[in-house]
Amino acid sequence: MALSLPRPQRFDVLIAAVSVLSGLALYALGLGTQGDRPLDSPWMLLPLGVLGCMELLRRTAPRVALPVATVALVFDQCTPGNLASVMMFTDIMYAAVVYGTPAAARRIPVTTGAITVAMTIGCLAWWQEPEAVLIGVATGIVAFGPAATGALVRNHREAAAAAKLRAEQTALLAEMDRVQAITAERARMARELHDMVANHLSAIAIHSTAALSLDDPSTTRGALSVIRENSVEGLAEMRRLIGILRDSSDDREPAAAPTLDGLGSLLAHARVNGLDVILDDERAPDGPKLPAPVELAAYRIVQESLTNALKHASPGRVTVALAEEPRALTVRVTSPCGDPSGPRAPGSGAGLVGMRERTELLGGAFESGPESGPDGAPDGKVWIVYATLPVDPADKEVTE
Questions:
Q1: What gap in Å lies between CA 337 and CA 383, rounded to an integer?
Q2: Which domain holds residue 336?
Q3: Which pLDDT score, from 0 to 100, does residue 55 have?
Q4: Helical packing angle, 102-127 and 145-213, nearest 10°
Q5: Per residue in 16-52, pLDDT tens?
Q6: What kind and span of H or E run contains 335?
Q7: Is it the case that residue 95 has pLDDT exceeding 90?
Q8: Is residue 215 part of a domain?
């Protein structure tokens, strides 16, 4: 089976070519690194060529290049020696640590360090001369020095890569948070816009239809009065919302959010629009004040329920009931369920979605649908909207 080696990189080819040419120049000048050796000068060309070939594999196949280069360097010690061969070996040792496997990067510096210490102690014990230390120093320069340098470079590269990865992950998380914040804000704005304006537009649509369909001056005048009142209030709500969106300064005083204290005005406006609505508030008059998000959600749920009753309910009484339960506020709106006798405005279903979203954001429970109603209700059914709103933000879910 033929041995397939990866293609060398251009920079490695350049290093190998310059190194081999330098070694040939030193050979031509008769410059060696050692004195008398068992083999003559021409033999130094063999390790020079082998090391030049291994330079081609310094990055693509360091596990092959280092063992072969080590054998070639040992053979070079049997010749007068060539400085270019030694320099190529140090580069291959460095590349084996930088581009090799993580296990090799940990193992090679330790191994070369141990060889350096062993050579120093062995030569001192053999020759018993201080000059023998120089052999250990030379071994450390040729083997341990490049390995240690490669380990430092690799550690810095890995640290830089890890820092870059952390920065990219941080940027990705920040972008995800930004997108989620924008999505949540858009959903909140959509709910606010729907809850503030839909009630007025529904009343305008119903009363304008009545004015067009009935040829009665008094009815037309009453419908136009209701239409004007709703258009003025709807325009004021729109201007308030646009002002909030345009003014993003931090020193701007925030607009007051509606609370349950405004239910009286909300129900009075619904009666002007033609609803027969009553409020059944079972809360204690001197009870603790509810959190602002809970009051806002309850107010908007009642507001949207009245809007739906105005658009879809049959003639009859609409009841808004508020009650306190342990750690929660319950909102219940009932309206006659059947075919309206008068004009009706089209619905999109966004109101029920908005009420459910408001409830779930507080960790509460929301239900809506027809139920059996009291005697006298059209078709014997009423439409129920029921929401349980936790008053403690720590409560994730409230059960009845």
A1: 5
A2: 274-400
A3: 94
A4: 170
A5: 999 999 999 999 988 887 777 888 889 999 999 999 9
A6: strand 328-336
A7: yes
A8: no
Q: pLDDT band at 396, cuts 50/70/90?
A: low
Q: Which of 273, 303, 277, 306 is nearest to 203 (CA)?
A: 273
pLDDT digits (tens, 9 = 90+) for 253-264: 445 567 888 888
More confident of the two residues 307 and 367: 367
- % of the chain with per-residue pLDDT over 70: 77
Residue linked to tokens 């930088």: 98
Amino acid residing at 30: G
CA–CA separation, 175 and 173 (whole Å): 5
Which tokens is 323 given?
């009650």
Running DSSP on this structure, what letter comes out for residue 8?
P
Same domain? 166 vs 278: no
* Residues 108 and 147 sit within 8 Å (Cβ to Cβ): yes
Q: How many CB atoms lie under 10 A from the CB of residue 288?
A: 8
Asked if 105 and 97 touch (Cβ cutoff 8 Å), the reply is yes
3-class DSSP assignment, residue 322: strand
> What letters, b where the CB count within 10 A reaches 16 and e where it falls short, cover 348-367?
eeebbebbbebbeebbbbbe
Kindly state the DSSP code that residue 376 receives in the 8-state scheme. Answer: T
Rounded mean pLDDT, 90-116: 94
34 three-state secondary structure? coil
User: Which run of H or E residues covers position 208?
Assistant: helix 145-213
Q: What pLDDT digit, counting tens, does each position of 152-209 carry? A: 999 999 999 999 999 999 888 888 888 888 888 777 777 777 666 666 666 676 667 7
The residue among 136, 170, 204 that closes a domain is 170
At 392, give phi and psi (nearest 5°).
Answer: -105, 120
Tell me: pLDDT of 400 over 50: no
At residue 266, φ and ψ (nearest 5 deg) are: -65, -45
Is residue 67 within 8 A of residue 100, CB to CB? The reply is: no
Whole-number Å distance between alpha carbons of 27 and 84 = 10
Asked which of 141, 170, 199 is the last residue of a domain, the reply is 170
Instruction: Output the six-digit token pair for 251.
Output: 């020193």
**Contacts (Cβ under 8 Å, ≥6 apart) of 237:** 196, 197, 200
Instruction: Name the domain count of the chain.
Output: 2
Best-predicted range by mean pLDDT among 42-46, 339-343, 358-362?
42-46
Q: Which two tokens stand for residue 122?
A: 């062995």
- What is the signed CA dihedral for 217, 221, 223, 224, rounded to 10 degrees? 130
